[in-house]
Amino acid sequence: xSSLFPALAQEPDRPALRFGDRSLTYGELASAAxxxxxxxxxxxxxxxxxxxxxxxAVGVVAALLAGVPAVPINPKSGGSELAHIVADSAPSVVxxxxxxxxPDALGDLTxxxxxxxxxxxxxxxxxxPEPDAGAPAFVVYTSGTTGPPKGAVLPRRAxxxxxxxxxxxxxxxxxxVLVHGLxxxxxxxxxxxxxxxxxxxxxxxxxxxxxxxxxxxELGSGATMLFGVPTMYHRIAEALPADPELVKALSGAxxxxxxxxxxxxxxxxxxxxxxxxxxxxxxxxxETLMNTSVRADGEARAGTVGVPLPGVSVRxxxxxxxxxxxxxDPEAVGEIQVRGPNLFTEYLNRPDATAGAFAEGGWFRTGxxxxxxxxxxxxxxxxxxxxLIKSGGYKIGAGExxxxxxxxxxxxxxxxxGEPDDDLGERIVAWIVPADAERPxxxxxxxxxxxxxxxxxxxxxxxxxLEALPRNDMGKIMKRALPRD
Length: 485
Prior knowledge:
Residues 8-348 form the AMP-dependent synthetase/ligase domain. The chain has 485 residues and is of the alpha/beta class. 28% of the residues lie in helices and 27% in strands.
């Protein structure tokens, strides 16, 4: 079953994984994962205690080799959420490093220790029968912002088609060395950030915990690619003026990629000005893996997530969910719908939710709103539920207002929402973390700043000041958690 990762059998001495000072070659990974896969015979699903470690990477590879769907578990999950995930996915085993103390919710599962020491011994042959391309590879749970998390069942073809499409878009080869510090219970850090390099025959250096010092060290010593989320790139942008070694390291990178949320244009421009390198963005979801990306040979246009990946169809539709919106109108906001081999097959045990997620013709309703440039570049303006504001007869995306606010020197963080208004339908509300808490910018100053850059109808009518914006573990702003009057 090594067709997912040909290098496991072909290039045993190549570096594969490095977490801190621990590492495995492809031969060692094949031995450890092969031995573990043999112990998973008969398992239905395998929960993986997804710490940022070699054990997690080996456990997931072993599950894929065994044809057993992996259920990545966030070690920071609360008790009720974890109990829901275990009851819903019904794994028969849990994979973790030997000696790991697991929560009670996992206590009834058969514990299988991930023994990295077996990497020193020859592993079982990796040439067993290959599961069907439609067979489940993962059950990954969504964030659950509107109810209990739903388990998105990702087939093997979604993994391979996405990683191969990114090979084309990013000119990704076995010579690339990827560095990141992303968590391994999401598709970004795990499927893109670990399985991506392994499918190419390249290597990954995981920072364990993100730091600009780690980025400098790894990009300065042979790494060619960096994956991050906007909060990480914001920290990089803040550090660049006083850190010439970080500037040099980023300048020498082949590819800087941001995902999981929109990267503010202000941070794009600061990084480009300091390093000469532009961060490229891509757009994906748990249910779809990757849909679009700026290409390595394309224009890294700030504020866009590029063009559809090979094999992926993308369209924007009106509120009726059917009428397609043509590209080229910068004010024509529509919902993104996606179709292709990258899609999940179902929400586990939720036929109602699965049916409701798809429009006629197999189009997945993403719930994300966007406009599309004449040349096909997609500009996401926000989530339909929280980021589309209908004010004074206009459909306004929160994202462009947030970008404008972040260009103001008195603004450190910004979020934009809508709230009911008797006259306008909805009024625009700006939530601001000021750069100087003692002297926050005045509300009318911010409104004029936005009106001058965008249009008068896009200015915030209300400004509220906070010490920090609520964010999840991937750095996304949790607008539903903003305080309400």
